[in-house]
Amino acid sequence: MRALTAVLVLAALASPATVRAACPADVTTQRFAAPGRYGVGVRTLKLVDTLRRTPPHYDEPGSPERKLTTEVWYPAPSGDVSQAQRDAPLGDGGPFPLIVMSHGYLDSRLGEGVYARSLASRGFIVAAPDFPLSNGAAPGGPTLIDLPNQPGDVSFVINSLALLS
How does strand 39-49 pair with strand 85-86? Predict the structure, then answer.
């Protein structure tokens, strides 16, 4: 606790130039949206974590497992970046770094697809799971009760994709 307090005090005393993020001046939304060197492929994976349960909520009984429908965007050989190619082959030049994109409350795995496509066109694999109880289409309605389980969901997605590679 003392170390955390010391870090916070030092951060508060630091000049704004020291604390702010360094971002190139020419980086813009338009530049980010411009296509990278790859086309974009996309796949939908039905991942099931049989070691962790989904808790009951509202009138829903819960489940002994966690179902994580996951959208995966990845570098493909070529194509229109605005339209990802379903089940396209993986592009050359890997290995490609993995980014796991977590949706916000009431959103879904598809909510930030434009960012995922842009990142995939630049050589990243982007995995976005639907969290079982906080996505907008959760059976019985979304709930915040499941938020503590989401870090484990992200870990499961990472491990599952590592096994697939």
Answer: parallel
Backbone angles phi, psi at 164, to 5 degrees: -75, -25
Return d(Cα 75, Cα 84) in angstroms, integer.
10
Pair 70, 47: CB distance under 8 Å = yes
Alpha carbons within 13 A on the beta-carbon side of 81: 18
Are the beta carbons of 54 and 66 closer than 8 angstroms?
yes
Strands (E) in the chain, as ranges, are 39-49, 66-76, 85-86, 98-100, 125-129
Q: What is the mean pLDDT of each run of 10 residues along the chain (165 residues)?
A: 42 47 61 81 98 93 96 90 89 95 92 92 97 93 93 98 92
